[in-house]
């Protein structure tokens, strides 16, 4: 999804010799700016949805993506750790969007 999202949004092919010169910080900035209309952006949007009314109206594919992500995350970490990680991610993206 990252490859197709970078190509559709930035016109960049990330599996090229030219892209090897992109540093980690620049890559993170590009990744954080991925538009919701890209393949990766749509998945992230579904996975991070918190509005119960929106979730209730998900189609079957959206619900599957949402539930698979929540189940995997719930199995992988304790609830307190999950909340801390989500807060850290939200803070990081808030800083990047300023």
Q: Could you say which structural class the secondary elements and strand pairing correspond to? A: mainly alpha
* Number of helical stretches of at least 4 residues: 6
Largest sheet: none
Pick out the low-confidence regions.
Answer: none
Total number of distinct structural domains? 1
Proportion of strand residues: under 5%
- Rounded to the nearest angstrom, the radius of gyration is 15 Å
- Spell out the helices and strands N to C: HHHHHH
- N-end to C-end Cα span: 26 Å
Indicate the percent of residues in helices. Answer: 55-70%
According to DSSP, the number of beta strands is 0
Mean pLDDT: 86
Describe the structure.
By secondary structure, this protein is mainly α. The longest helix is centred in the C-terminal third of the chain and has 18 residues, at 79-96. The chain has 6 helices and no strands.
